[in-house]
Amino acid sequence: MGNVRAPTYLLTAPRTRRPTLSMTLRRSYYDFSYGYREPRTFTLPDYTPAQLQNRTVNAPLLRYVDSVRTHGHRAARIDPLDLLQREEVAALNPARYGLDDPSRTYDINGIVWTRPVGQDTGPEHWPLDRITNHLRDVYVSRIAYEYMHSPSKTERLWFSHLLESESTEDRRVAAEERKRIHELLAQSEVFDQFLQVKFPNLKRYGLEGGESMLPALDALFKSAAEAGVEHIIVGMPHRGRLNLLTGLLQFPPTALFRKIKGGSELPEEYGAAGDVISHLTASPSLQYAGAQKPVKVSLLPNPSHLEAVNPVALGKTRAKQFALLKMLERAGETGCRPGDRVMCVQLHGDASFTGQGVVMEGLGLSNLPHYTVGGSVHLVVNIGYTTPASSARSSLYCSDVAKMINAPVLHVNGDYPEDVQRAIDVAFKYRNYFRKDIIVDLIVYRRWGHNELDEPAFTQPLMYEKIRSRRSVPALYEERLIDENVLTKDAAESVRAQHKEFLASELSAAASHKPGSVVSALQGQWKGLVWPASRDAVWDPETGVEVDTLKRVGRASVSTPEGFEIHPRLQRHVKHRLQAMETGKGLDWATAEALAFGSLMLEGYDVRISGQDVGRGTFSQRHAMLVDQRTEGVVVPLNLALECDGRLELANSSLSEMGVLGFEYGVSWEKPDILPIWEAQFGDFFNGAQVIIDTFISSAETKWLKQSGIVLLLPHGLDGAGPEHSSSRIERMLQLTNDPYTFGTGSEHANVNMNIAFPTTPAQYFHLLRRQVRRNFRKPLVVAGPKGLLRLAAAASSLEELSSGSRFRPVLDDPAITDTSAVSRVVCLTGKLYYDLVKERQKRQLDGRVAFVRVEELSPFPFHATLDVLSRYDGAQEVVWLQEEPRNQGAWTHVEPRLNAVLERLGRQKVTYRGRKEDAVPAPGIASAYSAQQKAVIDSAFHGL
Asked: Which residues pair with 295 in a beta bridge?
């Protein structure tokens, strides 16, 4: 093809954090908006001319060495049961490369790395047998390394230097560290045996066979603390969780025993449902020798859906990092980057790591500019699965999925705890140096089945014949230390006896144990907030803003630097926004949203909106980021023009639902002073994240007393777009609420788990967003958002509706009705259908005969507000519920009993339904069928009048 020059934007990258007009073209332009931290870049010294010459002269040796680095894992002794079927690896035979004389010496300079990085003191000659033995000791041993698949030469060289230059002495473990390992192993085994004796019918998902997980995590926490990490966020499943809690994370065994005996882990006065023992949590501060500060380790609560907690852990880590970064920047420290002080650790099972798609979604987020956390350490506790690997995955290793992001993988034999800690040490060094994800595949086994009541020999008789005939990992390690005079037999027995005595005393105290107060969860950033069910909770705060402030924000939202070239078609967007600020009228949805964002920023709150193409908006309505048409430099006008502490982060995401929503939910757990929003491209697509909604968003407060202010924006509305672009499945969201069926005793607001709203004006949307953080507690908010209403003139709002003294109204009466005595029918409804009905009413000249009442908030159902509005229409002959969704969908099943409770109090007949009939899909894909159905829905509102 001849000489083809790459475009400039592929050759160079800008170095400034904030976009300027001098930015060099680059496709990842929006990386440089707020929230972006430029990743670390590293290079190791390149080969010297002498090394390059030697690599050419000894090319056969180079090929052999690289083959061992690449294929050594296939012959490594990493299976504690020795059941892996290992084929003979021809690539590891030096004779294959013409190297058949063991005594022949070769210059290894630049081929095998036995010296520190950058040190080249000339030729270094080794005989072939020494080279072979050295390489096998490194790569074909009890730790197997996979890093040669990395496209980064720097990373490959880093690993080669680190692994090949360390001597046996460098890898020697001190006696005190070995005693620490023994203590963790022995105590874990005693713990499992104690539970087996005292609670033989308990499914505890013990760690027997995988006890090396504890010294692995201990080593990881210690290395992190010594490197200056102050916070570690851990997401893990059930396997070994109780061992970790009571063994490393200082969870009181007495609290565990109380829970096992049927008690609650939470204060009873809060009426929480609680969760099972394998989902318990702890957040201790651990002090390690050699670390200047203690490290706080937060084990997050998790559902039974494996891997679902991991994106939540990522989001919480990211939010904690940016809270610290903002604090440090205020103090003038600008060199801190994600990963310096906060680290994410993710634990996995082998079957779920390769089988659950959310793992791949999380990995896909790991290096994205608004989602990276500076590298996670992944520990796969590879215990085997009831189904054999041949049926559980299509790859050689469960960890192969991580190669999608070129992550290095370290496989290690769990029978050798010191090698396990060595693997962890390498993993942490890589993560801390490159700030990227790395996988440790801890290959162990489970002495029992999936749980202690299971019989694994049903399907794996040979494996469990071997397991039951072997001694435990703690026993084998204990014998080794005794044989090497590191530990006496009496000392070993004392460790076990003391821990057993401790557990017995904790069990005796279980009956009198009382859970701690929930107030302890409202400290730090959560200080000042209250429990939603408390008398101090403010459910309906004033959310209006002074008009002058709104105008300032509105102008700022479309401001650009001098010389910035905006797209010509966006000039109308800017003109409309400025005109609305001048006249105070004609505010569309994007304007109201910008005013909500900016006003919150001025009050010190951060705003983060995440999803697919959220910067411009799915419907090209938001344009919260503007791109220079000459340079592709980006500005986020609100960040650029508003001089305030609050910031707006526009996190354009990958095409992921479950992973991204889980991430944003994790953000909401960490920071109450942020408005965290996830916007689905279309509301229909939220069901890709249904697990997060079911097991976290709708239930975390009830299970774990965890508050969240997450907002789900789900574009909704039947407009002829077919079955999968029409409905946010409001019925499913409403079914997940604990909204009461009738009037409460004295208060409009029971402690309902989620707010679900269907606003019909920009002003209502504005107040909903601001209410999320103006309340003194946090609740998830689901918004059935607009599509066709985004630019509809009839739906526009005024600045007056957003001004001081205003707030969200859960029910909107019909503004066209002045004489209620003439109204014979009241139609209650939600959504955009209102505007179609008003237009049709005018066309039919029925303005005074039928009233349209919009129920803007469906959960908690506004009993009193609905009662107030409907009581005005005492002459109406009927109240109907009208919806464009099919009868078995939409809000009907939720509102019917609640509207009837209101009507019963008014002494009126029950509400009747009008709208589409039952259907298997939200909307038809045939245009003529949709049009006919929609016409019938509108006609039904007026039938008989």
From this structure: 286
